[in-house]
Amino acid sequence: MLVLAIDTALDACAAGVLDTKAGRLIAHESLPMKRGHAEALMPLIARVVESAGIAFAALDRIAVTTGPGSFTGLRVGLSAARGIALAANKPAVGVTTLMAYAAPVVGENREAPVISAIDARHDHVYFQAVSGNGSTLVRPHVAPVEEALAASRFGAPHLVGNAAKLLADRWPAHAPPPVAVDPQAAPDIAWVAWLGAAVSPDTAPPRPYYLRAPDAKPAGDLLRKTAKPAAS
């Protein structure tokens, strides 16, 4: 299977082509960025597909991160994935950023629980906790940092995500300390691709996974809310 993976959910603009038969990415590129995903993504995808030496029609599916993440960044990646899928007549699937963060750690088959955390600002995080084998301990949700720290009850965890250091810095003194802290700005595009290959298009649609109402609003919504009726 050939999978084109796309990630613009957080502080990177990334794409890669996974060849599951070869067991590796055959091309990939990742640019660190907080803004500018819309301008950077399509040229980046074109370079990656060209480097892979394939045509878009040869892809078997397109995988894209669905969030939590930046409202604007998510829209960029999801729009690109849907557009490419439609043009190539191939399925698109969605992968959450929290699971993409956790996947490489779970893949190591260690016993420590894995807590994925993304900064939601205002002293809140998006987080989930899974056991070393990937089974759910705490379902994905947004919560105050103090609530996330209560996951220390599951034992010394592996913290991963762009809020991993935030949690580590405030980890309860009475709890076993984290076994590892990986403050990654964005998930590894290779794991976005592998998860995209594993999920079903029927159960993992390419739809935004916000966990709470987005702070940003499309320009059209803002215009409709702020427009004043014409004087009669």
UniProtKB/TrEMBL annotation:
Keyword RNA-binding: no
Gene3D superfamilies, A to Z: 3.30.420.40
Alphabetized UniProt keyword annotations: Hydrolase, Protease
Any GO molecular function: peptidase activity
GO cellular component, one term: cytosol
Single GO BP term: tRNA threonylcarbamoyladenosine modification
Official protein name in the record: Peptidase M22, glycoprotease
Species, as recorded: Nitrobacter hamburgensis (strain DSM 10229 / NCIMB 13809 / X14)
